[in-house]
Design a protein that fits this description.
With 103 residues, the protein is α+β, with helices and mostly antiparallel strands. The chain is built from two helices and three strands. The structure holds iron/sulfur cluster.
Length: 103
Amino acid sequence: MGQGPGISICFIQDSVVSKDEVAMQVQLYSMGLKMVGEPVIKGSVTFLEDASTNKLEVGDAELQTAGATAGNYIDGIMNRDFTVCPGKFCGQCNYKFICRYRK
Ligand code: SF4
């Protein structure tokens, strides 16, 4: 509405993940598309489990944050820094039942 023509990135998610996890994926795709000159104006995810659709932010500030976060992950991998990071994600983690560091 009032944003002119542009691309909408819509994810359909059939597994249980958080909106934040999907948001980062959509924001990174948006960044890539914007880098090659494609105007991304909207992002969303639809969860099949409950048929809910959620808007995802794809503004410059959100893309900058997603890019910096991805950059930090890449730096960690390149530096072989696999320091355990217990936190709010532990509740959804696939390793939560065997991980001694989980919160
Ligand atoms: S449960 Fe363990 S591996 Fe999973 S996020 Fe938490 S600390 Fe990391």
